[in-house]
Amino acid sequence: MKRMCLVCQNIDCKSRGSEQLMGELEKRVAAKGLDDVEVKPYMCFGACQEGPNIVLYPEKSWYANVKVEDLDEIADHIAGGPHVKRLDTIDPSLKELIYQLLDTGIV
Amino acid sequence: MEGILFPHGVPESREELNDYRNRGGYEALARAIRLPADDVLNQVSDAGLRGRGGAGFPTGKKWALTREAPEQPRYLIMNGGEDEPGSKKDRVLMENVPHLVIEGVILSAYALGAEKAYLYINAEYETALKSISDALAEAKSEGYWGENILGSNFSIDIEIVPAPHNYVAGEDTAVIEVIEGKKAWPRQKPPFPVTVGLYGKPTSVNNVETLANVAPIVLHGAEWYRKFGTADSPGTMLFALDEDVNRPGVYELPFGTPLRYLIEECGGGLKNGKNIKAVMPASPSCAFLPPEKIDTPLDHNSMREAGAGIGCGVIRLVAEGECIVEEVLRIAEFFAAESCGQCPACRMETSTLAMMMKKVQQGQGGQPILEQFGKILAFNKGKGFCNLINMPGPPIESAIKLFPGDFEAHLTTGKCPATNE
Predict the structure, then answer these.
(1) Which of B319, B352, B370 is the last residue of a domain?
(2) Same domain? B273 vs B351
(3) Cβ-nearest to A106 among B341, B365, B375
(4) What is the three-state SS of B4-43?
(5) Same domain for B63 and B200?
(6) Mean pLDDT computed over B84-102
(7) Minimal CA separation from B372 to chain A, in Å
(8) Where does the pLDDT of residue B360 fall: very low under 50, low under 70, confident under 90, or very high at 90 and above?
(9) Which CATH class for the A3-103 domain?
């Protein structure tokens, strides 16, 4: 199974630039030659007020309020670097809900 | 069976003004306008009239709250948005008995002390719009509305507002937004329209059928009205059966009539003699009932005790051999499409549920995905401005509980047990 970077593309995240974020993240992932990683749109993680949201799966890392300037660090994390702790602000119960849903294989 | 709205059955053509007057039309108005407005309000309260738009709220109470609000002026809105799939009762009333509807509007405005009434009518209902528009002109020329109605001190202006045709546009506060010239987006509540409604003023939003009951109540009295129906749900209600039955249509029945009577005696049962697999008596947003509950009386209390509701009287039948997964997928996709999108939780919930149900239909996700439905619903419960966020839950959860076999078949074989595809 490919590793996934799910980038929310619902109204709030989009209004804060998640389309551009997805494109930029794709470039960085490609630049690092991470062939086993797929950057994909996702419809809504339910954390609209903290968007744009990016979830790495199956690692289960959730980055909120992501800006373009955060992407290099996120790409580093995907490539095996450290977790970007300051962007990890989502409530654990919501994380659990979404991770369980992703575990059913819906994406 | 004698009815209240349709004493001789649902008329096949439009009732003209003279025919309406020959059966007592506008007599209630002529009498009531000489009496204090409280008399009308009290009669409607004593009759126990409850809203027919879905919630079943006591109409007299809604009016009293509107009148008690300190602000002036007050407004009355007739809600004829009627966007629930399968619903056609309000259209039938507006098309065929427009004067019954209009007399109800004028009486209700009088009871409320409203200076203006808006008739919010589904823009796709061309015949209903014309029927009501023509009837308004006739009624005005007879002095039934306008300045100093029938020589009294009471004046009322009435205006028709075409309603956008989408589900949320029928929600009370979305109706108010549309009349104010804005998008059909529900408002956060409280405050409720009875205190802060149209242009910030006290407003009573009442369904067409609710208002159509007012003239008969005022004409014949609360005691007469209570001869129909049950103590909890007095009067009659219009129920709609779709093309799945032998005799589809709108039927007026006293509250408390067994669901079986509606389906079998009125509708003639399912086509091709099929058996019923499930019934959704407040389609599309209540729980499915199994066939064992087909004798449940059609009234608010009984339906609630049975685990369902009565809604606005749209009865959806699922036949044996049909797949419940396909049915709830349609429902989940309907709510995802109709969510107006302003509340993040509703967007997330409705789109996630539709996506999950699509996966189930395609045979993906296994048993664990079924366990996620309740969690997604619980997480989002009550988090929207309007009730839409709470609507997909009952059909989905009841379907999973009542028909585990259909879900299992999809999840294990990837095929629908009904079509084998």
Answers:
(1) B319
(2) no
(3) B365
(4) CCCECECCCCCCCHHHHHHCCCCHHHHHHCCCCHHHHHHH
(5) yes
(6) 95
(7) 6
(8) very high
(9) alpha beta
The predicted-structure confidence for B242-255, as pLDDT tens digits, reads as follows: 999 999 999 999 99
What is the distance between the alpha carbons of residues B163 and B45, in angstroms, rounded to a whole number?
29
Question: Which pLDDT does position B1 carry in this prediction?
Answer: 53
Ranges of beta strands (E only) in B273-375 are 276-280, 314-319
Strands (E), A1-107: 3-8, 37-42, 54-57, 61-63
Q: Report whether B190 contacts B197 (CB < 8 A).
A: no
Interatomic CA distance for residues B43 and B61, integer angstroms: 12
As a whole number, mean pLDDT of residues A67-88 equals 95
Q: In this complex, is the C-beta atom of B345 within 8 Å of any C-beta atom belonging to chain A?
A: yes
pLDDT of residue B415: 81
Q: Is the dihedral of CA B72, B78, B83, B84 positive or negative?
A: positive
Q: Within this chain, do residues B375 and B350 fall inside the same structural domain, yes or no?
A: yes
Contact B379 A49 (CB under 8 A): no
- How many domains does chain B fold into? 3
Q: Same domain for B51 and B190? A: yes
Does B231 map to a domain? no
Give percent of chain B above pLDDT 70: 100
Is B230 inside a domain boundary?
no
Q: For all residues of chain B together, what is the average pLDDT?
A: 95
pLDDT in tens, A4-54: 999 999 888 999 999 999 999 999 999 999 999 999 999 999 999 899 999
Which of the four pLDDT bands, split at 50, 70 and 90, describes residue A106?
Answer: confident
**Model's pTM, two decimal places?**
0.91
Is there a single domain that holds both residue B97 and residue B153?
yes
Residue B108: give its domain's CATH number: 3.40.50.11540
Of the candidates B356, B365, B379, the beta carbon closest to that of A97 is on: B379
Q: Does B363 touch chain A (CB under 8 A)?
A: no
Q: Where are the domains of chain A?
A: 3-103
Helix (H, G, I), strand (E, B) or coil at B354: helix
Picking from A12, A104, A107 by the largest number of B CB atoms within 10 A of its own CB, the best residue to mutate is A104
- The answer to whether A44 contacts B347, with C-beta atoms less than 8 Å apart, is yes
Check pLDDT > 90 for residue B12. Answer: no
The mean per-residue pLDDT over the stretch B135-156 comes to 96
Whether residues B181 and B97 fall in one domain: yes
Domain, as residue range, for B257: 236-319
User: Would B397 be classed as within a structural domain?
Assistant: yes
B151: Cα within 13 Å, side-chain hemisphere: 3
